Amino acid sequence: MQKNKVTCILCPRGCTIEKKAQGDTFEFTGFGCKRGMKWAKEEFTNPKRILTTTVHVKNGEIDFVPVRTNIPIPKEKIFEAISILKGIEVLAPVEIGSVIVKNILDTGADVVATRRVGKKDSSYD
């Protein structure tokens, strides 16, 4: 019998949920609510995370704009998504909520700006 443990992150209780696997059957214990059980099943079978990083801005007041996915993406696609975003440059100005990449890696998630970046004032160059 294989056992794995995770700490639930849905609420401050932080229940320790254990998955016991024998063949193709799973048993979950330690969850304090139905939401915790649902989260644990998802975490063990298809873990997802919100991706946060930065994207280069051309002619911006600052060189990078912080971005995030609007929904969690599969954990196994995080590094591939980061590689794609490293090669992207957006033109200032950038508004909060601007979609930088739509449906990244066919995950259904959009990468959106989380800060406004104005255009660089070129009169001081």
From TrEMBL:
Gene3D superfamilies: CPE0013-like. InterPro entries: CPE0013-like_sf, DUF1667. It holds the Pfam family DUF1667. Coiled coil: none annotated. This is Molybdopterin oxidoreductase.
